[in-house]
Amino acid sequence: MNERDSERVLALLMEQGYRIVSLPEEADLIVINTCTVRKKPEHKVYSLLGRFKRLKERKPQLKIVVMGCLAQQEGERLLDRFPQVDMVLGPDRVDEFTKGLEKAIDGDRVCMIGFKEDPSQRVLLPPFRSPRAYVNIMQGCDNFCSYCVVPYVRGPEKSRPSQEILKEVRLLAKEGVKEVILLGQNVNAYGKKSPGELSFVELLRKIAEIPGIERIRFTTSHPKDLSEELILAFKEIPQLCEHIHLPFQAGSNKILKMMRRGYTREEYLQKVERLREVVPEIAITADVIVGFPGEEEEDFEKTLDLIERVRFDGLFSFKYSPRKGTLASRWPDDVPEPIKARRLEKLQSLQRKITLEKNKALEGKVLEVLVDGCGEREGQLRGRSRCNRVVNFMGPLDLIGKIVWVKIKEGLPNCLRGELLLEEKEVLYA
Ligand code: SAH
Ligand code: SF4
User: Fold this and answer.
1) Which of 34, 76, 127, 369 could serve as 14's disulfide partner, Cβ 3.0–4.6 Å?
2) Axis-axis angle for helices 200-208, 162-174 (nearest 10)
């Protein structure tokens, strides 16, 4: 979501004649887009602000903007604590970026935070056209999982009008975009609060009708709201890619309850089973937290057990950190740091093994790949399979933006290496 906001600001600025520079020392304007979901990224912002303070001492005309969740959370306090900051902009005020910047250039210190009633957004295309584009379909969240700051910093859940989303996707398709990634904290709840609005699956169907859109993905799905209708949509809508990001957060019912997630491990496993029954080749990725308050060794073992049962295609794993204002922050953060670190390492090493085994199992298979850029080696291209795996292969630059078939030669820990095929062959959705 932050990535899409950064794209929108970049598009706004480029419209105004701004250009990207390669070093902060060369910049006249620095925009830091922030996230407060965990402690680590928040600390990074403070250290960047320290670095940019020194730059500003040497170059007083430099303007520094902090946007995103931290801006929303800290508001005026950021201006008080950091005299080098010229503007603080909340995530719901991105469209007002230029208005605020004009004031900042005139010497004001600007703070624009808070939520707007109207969830409509100005459609802005990123200045660099990739064949893949992010599209916000919802903002905010009403779930209040006990550890999570998102409902506080991103406000209540609001769905963007479907007409506006469809208009944006049509525009993207005209620009050559082939894959759209629909963004929201809980996309399954799309439209539920807006009478007369399309449901999420209806929205997916409408997007699939737009000529040129060959792939659709979405993130994030909340397990409690993953409906049978959506599971069946994977089979019914050809453009819907065989990948779902379905965070489980913990494998123990005791912890899930304290997290206020609204499902049990058994319910989660049932949803996974049903998904695989309908779409056997589906890739499943998830988020998981270790060291939540009260997490004992046996709870953690249940998390490991769930990972072994599901055999995820990828996992994003985090150490719990208390976030201001959340319910869990009122409880003692009682898992000591070294234990959190040990659990995280154990979990990640299990997942590395599973990912590598899954990647190796793809050796010899032919995958459909949307080429989105250059790989790390000279002459190498990079793309993603329908299941969202990164695939590197040698090929000419004019394939960027196209869908090709690649025969997998080697499954590596974080990606696949393959060979470009000139004809479609036995395509597998992986
Ligand atoms: N809406 C998404 C998650 C958004 S936040 C969902 O419901 O799944 C992204 C991830 O950050 C979460 O899935 C969670 O794993 C992690 N996270 C959120 N708050 C955290 C905290 N206080 N400590 C550690 N990890 C956290
Ligand atoms: Fe946070 Fe839970 Fe909402 Fe996800 S669903 S954004 S974890 S409160």
Assistant:
1) 127
2) 30
